[in-house]
Structure formats: C-alpha cells, structure tokens
Amino acid sequence: MADAVALRPLVVPVGSPLPPNLYAVACEFAGPAEVYHAAEKIRDLGFKWWDCYTPYYVHGLDRAMGQRKSFVPWFTLAGGLGGLVGAFLLVVITSVWVYPMDTQGKPYFALPAFVPILDLVMILLSAIVSILGMTTLSLLPRLHHPLWEWDAFMRATNDKFFVVIEANDPKFNEKATAELLKQLGGTNLTFIGDVA
Amino acid sequence: MSDHGILRLPAPEHLKPATFGFVRGVLAVLAVVGLVLCLLGGIFDTRQFAFSWFFAFYYFFTISCGSLFWVLLHYVCNGSWDILIRRIWENLAALFPALLLVLAPILIFPQLHDPLWAWMGLVGTDNHELALRAAYLNYPFFYLRVALYFAFFIFVALWYRHRSIMQDADGSPTWTFKLHYHSYFLMTMWALIETFASFDWFMGLDWRWSSSLFGAYHFALSAQAGMAACIVIAAWLQSKGYLARLNHEHYHLAGKLLFAFTILWAYFAFGQYLLIWYANIPEETIFYNDHNRGNWPYLTYFLIVGKFMFPVIFLLAQDTKRHLGRLTGIALWILFMHAVEMWWFIMPYAHVKSLVPSWLDPVCFLTVGSFMGFIYLRLMSAASLFPTRDPRLPECLTVSN
C-alpha cells in the first residue's frame, strides 16, 4: 500500500484526482501583460502564498503582486554598521594598545590612516550580510522544489509565464482557486504535489 | 502600464512670460545694483573684490562645467532616462559665454589677477621657485590655455544645445547618432580641459602647491553641483506646471546619481588629504596648513559633516530620493554647501590669519548669480523646455527602476 501511494503521480492536470501532499495549483500565461493583470486580480483577492515566474524581469510586476519593499536593505545597513564598528575596534585595539608602532611620527590613533580600512570592511561586510540575508529570506539554497517535477515549468526560464498559488494559503481551495486561474486566462492548469 | 494604451508624447513646452517675467525683472535689477556695489568695492578694496568676484565666478563655473559633463555622459552611454531634464543641463552649459564675460575683468586687470594668482605678480622678479616652473607658469601660455578652455567649453556646449534644438524641429534621429559619435572624444577632452582649468584657476591660487588628484576632485564636485542645480531647476519648473511627465522614477534616478557623486566627492577630497597627510611633504601639506589656521578648522569640520555625512545619510533612504520635496531640499542644501566649499577653498588666500567674511562675498555672489539667472531664463525661453522629438523620449517617459 505504501508503494502505491509513492507511485501516485506528483503532477496532474486539474480535474484528475489530487496528487499526494498537494503543494500548489499552477497555470501558464502567454505573455507579460497577461501575467501582470492576473497578478493584480490575485493580489486584490487577498492571496498571500503565491508567486509569478517569468523568463525576464517584468517592470512593475512586484507592485502588481502587492509586494512590499524588500527587507534586504536592513541587512545591508546592519552589516555595514557592524563592519564599521568591528573594523574600528580591530584597528584601534591593535594599533593603539596591543602593538603601537611609531610610523613617521604619526600619532598611534591616526584616524586618516584607519579610514580606508573602516571603509573597505564596512563595504565587505554589508555585501556579505546582504547576500546571506537575501538567500535566507528566499529560503535558499535548496536541493529540491516541488515545481521542478513539472516538465512544462522548465519553460519559465525560456518563453512562458507562470502563476503558482500554494496550498498553504489561507484562501486556498483546490476547486475555487483552479477555477479562478482559469477565469484569469491561465492555461495548462495543473496540481502540483510534494513527496513529503 | 502602457501595454494597451498608446503612449502619448508630451507637446513641446515653452516658458510663458507670465512665469518668469517678474523673476527676470528682479534678477536684472539685482544684477545692475550689485554691479554698482561691486564697482565701488573693486575701487576701494581691490584685493578683496578680486577674491569675492572669483569666488562667485567659480561657483557658477563648476555648475556649468558639471552640466556639460552630464550632457556628454548622456550621449556617451546612449542615455534615455534623463531626456526630460537634459535641456536644463544644455542651457546651464550654454552659460559659458556669460562666464567668460564674468572672468574677463580678472583676466584683464593686473590689480585683480596679481593678488589672486600670486605667481603673476612675481613674473619678472628673480624668484627661484617660479623660475623652475616658468615653462608652465608664464603669461603667454596661461592666456593661451584660458583661450583654449573657453573655446572648448563654449563650442561644445553651444554645439550640443544647438543640435538638440534642431532635432526638436525635424525629429531626425541622425542628430542623436551624430552627437553620440562625437561624445567619446569630447568627453575625454572635457576631462583634460576641466583638469587643467582647475589646475590653472583653482589650484593656481597657491602656485607652489600641487596635487595629482586635483582634477578628479574637481570633476566630482562639478558633476555633483551640476546634478543638484538640475534637480532644483526641474522642481521649480514642475512647481510652475511644466514638465508634467517628470515623475518619481526620474527623481529617484537623479537622486541616486546625486548620492553617488556626494560619495565620490568625499572619496576624492579625503583621498587627496590622506595621501598628502601620509607623505607629509612640506610643499603639499602647505594647502592644509593654509586652510586650518585660526578659526578655519571649524569650517573644515562643517564641510565634512554638512557636505558629506548629512547628505549621504539623508539620501541613503529610497523614500528621500523618490520624494520631490525632500530631494529638492537636499539638492538646495548641497548647492549651499558647494558655495561654502568654494569659499573655504578660495578665501584662506585672501585672509591668511583667520576666517573673515566680507560684505563683498554675498554681493559679488548675488550679482554674478542674478546675471547668470537672467541669461539662463533667456536661454530657457528660447526653446522647448525638453527635447521634444528625441527618439528615446518614450523610453524616458516609461522609465522604471
């Protein structure tokens, strides 16, 4: 019996029996304008757990999806300030107390000489923390994603536009949501399941 | 989104006399009254007048110089976002003939240029240091260079403005390609001319001092001033009901560049200081000694806080750059700090011991400023306020970032 469950297909067209561990209902759109207007309607209906997949950046799609400004700049700011303070402590502790060296008669606490180090460590840390923050917020890196089971979806990096509404959205209902995507002009409506 | 609708291009806009007639009248009166006061000042306190007049000249020279940079940069990188505001820069750069007129008294009268560029007063004396530099610092070569600078600035600025206005008439994309084709060479020339002009006029205030980073420093402050002036003028035009298609996306992009050039200015200004401080060679440190006597250091610290820290922190937030009021406010502040910096740079050579403001500083500044404003309004009303038939105008109207 367990084998039978595992063999049930993970990707089925809408209308067929549901796949195991339903992840999402997905559909295809022909172009950027269609996906843009569909996104506006889905946003207005109050969906939270959903996403659009496009082969290239569609200007204004983030606003059509009702996405708020990214949180990543705060990571950048925190990394930058941390780098600034950390580098300041590093150079001041080493060159003023731990290992003071008389260089050309300059004072031990020589702020102009420190500035390039402060500047560069600030930039380095803000960049590293931004990338880490961005990948963390995007739940990356990951080894597998349910959508990758769907062969048609591979064209998201080529010439097709997709909208995927996840099953854990509070407003999700497999019949009503699939019907909604159909009304919005989506084709190739598909249920996506997950292995666990 | 413009997916379904047809993008409507804005009609050419011309400045209505009702908008600027009063302003222009006020500027004309101010310029004439100021000129009389300046003449009196020039007669009774010639030395101070030379410095104050040069301060006023240099403030507006850097703005025009930076504006020409932005015009050339637009063509060098096939820009499109700044087409709606490009005419503002073209008009600012077209002020070079007026700037030549402003500099003319200093170039002509030895009573004015001898105190200003001290080496000129030493020509003919047996000054050993000057003799070593005589190949560069001599009258004929200096005037030849000044002629070359102004010939370049005036020709390029007027040529680019003229071709851009011709495109308004025939709408041919050929003009865009032609100006693009020439822009690479002219941009290189601009950098050289701007560097040597800053050497001769600005660094030449102390002819014994030299800094190899000076051209870059001067470039950053000019471009920053040009961008700030453009933002302020665009905001003024919008408040009068022109340039209605200019939106927060354009301001965001302009704000980003203003932010970048604020940092670039600080980078070069500090880099120059750091290298000189490190090497500690007397003929280089002389500049910072001259600028930090008596109560001058307070002004130096004010520059660091007011021209770098405050604008950078303020412009860091995206909301500032997308908000017209805030962006205009910070652009005005940067223009004010630009005047402070010019004053900080020039005046230690007039008042060696300590910081002494003179009544001639604001009077000369207002006189030259009113004159520039008067000419600027004439230039602005002579053509449409933006390039109406630039082939990339639709790209500019729908820009998003």
Write structural notes for this entry.
The complex is a heterodimer of chains A (196) and B (401). Chain A contains six helices and five strands, in the order αββαβαααβαβ. Chain A is of the alpha+beta class. Chain A has two domains: 2-69 and 144-192; 72-137, no CATH class. In chain A, helix 4 (72-98) runs antiparallel to helix 5. Chain A is elongated and about 80 Å long. Chain B contains 17 helices and no strands. Chain A binds chain B through residues 32-33, 36, 59-60, 69, 73, 104, 112-113, 115-116, and chain B through 1, 3-4, 270, 273-274, 277-278, 280, 318, 400.
Give the amount of beta strand of chain A, in percent: 5-15%
Oligomeric status of the shown chains? heterodimer
Q: Secondary-structure element sequence of chain B? A: HHHHHHHHHHHHHHHHH
The amount of helix of chain B comes to over 70%
Based on helices, strands and strand pairing, what is the structural class of chain B?
mainly alpha
Compressed to H and E, one letter per element, the order of chain A equals HEEHEHHHEHE
- The SS-based structural class of chain A is alpha+beta
Strand content of the residues of chain B, in percent?
under 5%
The coarse silhouette of chain A is elongated
